[in-house]
Write a structure and sequence with these properties.
alpha/beta, Four Helix Bundle (Hemerythrin (Met), subunit A), Rossmann fold, 6-stranded mixed beta sheet, binds guanosine-5'-triphosphate, binds magnesium ion
């Protein structure tokens, strides 16, 4: 199904991070990989990189062929096509000496006529040679960029081909259906089992249902990727910035006893139980004559509609007045946790004034902060992941194509409903099939492929 991609040139890049880690790997892929590596690598003893068997690790030194100087002590692995990541010949040089020898080694490789790989080019070759399908190639990219542990797990799952399997199964169903329709159109004189309208409606509806379930999971996937937009809201001086700092475990925002301290929006990401939350600290909401403060208040109110979760804070020692109530009304239909802060300072007379749903906390003394974190995670994990989708889609491209796929299927159902001939339904289903095949990369144009791989790190 995949064309064999014949790359004429050999590419190389540093495949590990450029930090100060002990070991760095230089990856070379392409027809000249082994011969180039042999020119700069001197193995110990009588071993020989060109003639040794594939998938073997050799110990030795990188030696500058011009000066005969040793550059680094290395382990070199030789992997012959097709059993490699790119399905081309691959050589990986494990350098030990840190960044400078590693850069020098890469420079020597490039001097031998190898080209520096573009971002994502190794993975692009793996895709073009049929080693990975597109959803898997994109998962590699997501793993590289994974912000949270959960997102990493999702990407790993996708790499194992969970999404591809689901897409392939839907493709099979659709091709089956299309072949029946085509047979009925093309050979009406033969006695082919007729596609009954009921079967058509049932099959297409089942595909729509499955797609919806996948897309519901996608919503959660997006959240895992970008962080739950979590708005900290309340009157001035209730302790919003203090809570932000407590959750971040750093003094990020200015805290003072003066009401109206925070003027602008402060955004910071924190990971709780593997879920990233984007915390948004805002200006305390009140009527104000101060223009700067008023802008901050407006921004905070703006955020209410956009937030995934609201942490509504109130001072436990103060009754809920009309102004508080107006603010509470604004968040009434939003996912909200109600926090009664300064519980350390509680006047016994007021105890119990703020009952459910308020949770008493004290940011100052750290009271109930762990419970708050648990509740934040629980809100995200409860019920938002659709039971029918057993994995999540995190990739925007997949989401868009699945939406188009669903629309084309629904169009087919409408066409059917309006009593149009089979040819017309077939056209809608062909459209649907094309979208599906674009997800896995079976039918996709070069420009799109280029754009996808552009986002990769060099070396992957
Ligand atoms: N007693 C007590 N004081 C607290 C607690 N949390 C915060 N404070 C104090 O309340 C004051 C205001 O805290 P901030 O975090 O600046 O409040 P804020 O809601 O961000 O205020 P604005 O930015 O002005 O809207 C500071 O003096 C904090 O030390 C708490 O749990 N107990
Ligand atoms: Mg503040």
């Amino acid at each position: 199904m995949h064309r064999q991609y014949l790359s004429e040139d050999t590419i190389a890049a540093v495949a590990t991070g450029m930090g100060s880690s002990g070991i760095g790997i230089i990856r070379i892929s392409g027809p000249e990989a082994v011969s180039v590596a042999s020119k700069i690598f001197t193995p110990k003893g009588s071993q020989n990189l060109e003639t040794c068997e594939s998938h073997k690790l050799l110990y030795g030194h990188i030696v500058d062929p011009q000066t005969a100087q040793r550059v680094d002590e290395v382990l070199v692995s030789k992997m012959k096509a097709p059993h490699t990541y790119t399905r081309e010949d691959v050589v990986e040089i494990n350098c030990h000496g840190g960044i400078v020898p590693m850069q020098k080694t890469l420079a020597l490789v490039l001097q031998e006529g190898v080209r520096l790989a573009e971002p994502g080019e190794f993975t692009k070759r793996a895709f073009l040679n049929g080693r990975l399908d597109l959803t898997q190639a994109e998962a590699v990219m997501d793993i590289i960029g994974a912000k949270s542990e959960k997102n990493l797990q999702l990407s790993l799952y996708q790499l194992e081909g969970a999404l591809s399997k689901s897409i392939d199964a839907m493709e099979d169903t659709l091709i089956d259906l299309l072949s029946f329709i085509e047979a009925n159109i093309d050979y009406p004189e033969y006695d082919i089992e007729e596609v009954s309208e009921t079967r058509l409606v049932e099959t297409v509806s089942a595909l729509v249902k499955k797609t919806k379930a996948l897309l519901e999971g996608a919503q959660t996937g997006r959240i895992y990727k970008e962080g739950i937009a979590t708005l900290i809201l309340g009157e001035p001086n209730v302790g919003k910035s203090s809570l932000l700092n407590a959750l971040l475990m750093s003094e990020r925002a200015i805290v003072t006893e003066i009401p109206g301290t925070t003027r602008d929006i402060i955004e910071e990401t924190v990971t709780i139980q593997g879920i990233p939350f984007k915390l948004i600290d805002t200006a305390g909401i009140r009527e104000t004559d101060n223009i700067v403060e008023q802008i901050g208040v407006d921004k905070a109110v703006d955020w209410i509609e956009r937030a995934d979760l609201i942490l509504f804070m109130h001072d436990i020692n103060k009754p809920i007045d009309a102004e508080d109530q107006a603010l509470l009304d604004l968040v009434a239909n939003r996912q909200t946790l109600y926090l009664a802060n300064k519980a350390d300072n509680l006047n016994t007379a007021d105890e119990g004034k703020l009952g459910s749903p308020w949770m008493p906390i004290s940011v100052l003394e750290g009271h109930n902060i762990d419970r708050l974190k648990e509740q934040m995670a629980a809100v995200v994990l409860s019920g938002k992941v659709s039971a029918e989708s057993d994995f999540l889609i995190t990739n925007v491209r997949h989401i868009r194509l699945l939406e188009l796929f669903q629309r084309a299927l629904e169009q087919a159902l409408e066409t059917l409903d309006s009593g149009m001939p089979l040819e017309m339904i077939s056209i809608d289903l062909q459209d649907a099939l094309a979208y599906l095949r674009e997800i896995s990369g079976k039918q996709i144009d070069e420009a799109v492929i280029h754009r996808i791989f552009e986002n990769f790190c060099v070396g992957k």
